[in-house]
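User: Predict structure, ligand zinc ion.
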Amino acid sequence: MLVSATEMLNKAVAGKYAVGQFNINNLEWTKAILQTAEECKSPVILGVSEGAGKYMTGFKTVAAMVSAMIEDLGITVPVALHLDHGSYDGCMKCIEAGFSSVMFDGSHYPIDENIAKTKELVDICHSKGLSIEAEVGSIGGEEDGVVGAGEIADPNECKMIADLGVDFLAAGIGNIHGKYPANWKGLDFDALGKTKNLIGDLPLVLHGGTGIPADMIKTAISLGVAKINVNTECQLYFQAATRKYIEEGKDLEGKGFDPRKLLAPGCAAIKEIVKEKMELFGSVNKA
Ligand SMILES: [Zn+2]
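Assistant: Predicted complex:
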């Protein structure tokens, strides 16, 4: 069933594991992730960026599809439907559309404005039973066409945003979206530890989970990271499997052109990487 992400993430902090947020793009993506979560008996967060929401024709379509799919597939593990890097207006639309969680990304505003807007959305979300994530320190990589290095969030600013009553917090610690460059310096565990000391048991979120080495993921979880976002990696697995199918000429054999056959290897590849991540994050059998 569709639930807010608060309870699953508080449990993750207590149990020292992390719940994966896997972004969805269409029906196939959603189905593959939900089936894997059920098979692994893992809680799961389905992430939807504003761009992906638009691509899928709107947030209402997404919420209706996910709710219906949970029912049709007989999914019993906790599932949160979460807006990823939402604007203020995007958050309002998702609240109305039936999402169970939103992220308000006010990291590009001056801290005072980030605080004011976050506070307003915290009150609205909580009055309607949704969970809300906020961000301090912009995550590097490509966001809206601009490629930036990962900022290190100021632990004191993290504490200010945490005190507004957000349910979980994304704090930049040098992590970036997309593929990591060869000269990447790694995660700043010193900053993560300082933030953790100030905010206590509030779950921390690690964006840009694609390509962070397993040992760094484990250290981050030990320091309070309870939600890890994975997007690019599913795309790369889907792409590689689809390319292989075409290059091997399978689309030209029999009814290999049938979209249900053409997309099947990509979907199987998404299931494989999602399972691998759930095992790494420690969320298997935690539903
Ligand atoms: Zn992100």
